[in-house]
Amino acid sequence: MEIIYDFMRNAGYPPSFEEMRDIIGVASNQSIIDLLDKLKKRNLIKKNEGARSIAIQPLGYKILGRPALAPVLGVTTAGAPAEMIEITGEWSQVSADVARLDSEIFILRVKGDSMINAGIDDGDMILVQTKKEFVSGNIVLADCDGESTIKRFVSEDKPPYVYLKPENPVYNKILFTDTVRLKGKVISVLKNGQWKYVK
């Protein structure tokens, strides 16, 4: 667990089987696979095919007694929807309460000023929790016809019924269509080195 954590923090991505083999000093990939399977069965890590798909679970961070890490996936807009620019190899520490979340979390850097009245400014880092269900009022990461944006999700009993609302009067609402998908809920914003929950 410590090897995985330290490698992720320093390199920006999980170690490969070969890298873990060299650090531990074992000869075969099977030894690494067996160790990873034990960690997975104890719900300490989550793993898909391949070593670099490893993610440390909340219980793993608790046992390690170290701050949780979340990947910085890229840049999204707080303005007109635009293509998300992927950044690789950067991780940031998150608070212990965030580490207890049972769904995937990741960090994005915000570009634009459409959410300034919600306390999300141009250049801020936001923490996004992957979700499938949302309630009116959530600040969300939305995919609008292949482009991403951060807005407030609104569902009302009157027209336009469902839309994405900017928190800056300069910008227009984005009506919900078949091409809009909600990808995650924005749960906090990094301000002055501290993660603060958003409302």
Q: What's the story with the biggest beta sheet?
A: 11 strands, mixed
User: Distance N terminus to C terminus?
Assistant: 35 Å
Alpha carbon gyration radius: 19 Å
**Total number of helices:** 5
How many individual domains?
2
Q: List low-confidence stretches.
A: 82-88
Question: What would you note in describing this structure?
Answer:
With 199 residues, the chain is α+β, with helices and mostly antiparallel strands. The protein has 2 domains: 65 residues, Winged helix-like DNA-binding domain superfamily/Winged helix DNA-binding domain (Arc Repressor Mutant, subunit A); 125 residues, Ribbon (Umud Fragment, subunit A). 21% of the residues lie in helices and 35% in strands. The protein has 5 helices and 13 strands. Strands 3, 4, 5, 6, 7, 8, 9, 10, 11, 12 and 13 form an 11-stranded mixed beta sheet that branches. A hairpin with a 7-residue loop joins strand 3 and strand 4.
Key terms:
single chain; 199 residues; alpha+beta; Arc Repressor Mutant, subunit A; Umud Fragment, subunit A; 11-stranded mixed beta sheet; two-stranded antiparallel sheet; 5 helices; 13 strands; elongated
List the helices and strands and how they pair.
Blueprint: H1 2-11, H2 17-24, H3 29-41, E1 45-46, E2 55-56, H4 58-64, E3 68-77, E4 85-86, E5 91-94, H5 96-99, E6 105-111, E7 125-130, E8 139-144, E9 147-155, E10 162-165, E11 174-175, E12 180-191, E13 194-197
Parallel strand pairs: 3-6
Antiparallel strand pairs: 1-2, 3-4, 3-5, 6-7, 7-12, 8-9, 8-12, 9-10, 10-11, 12-13
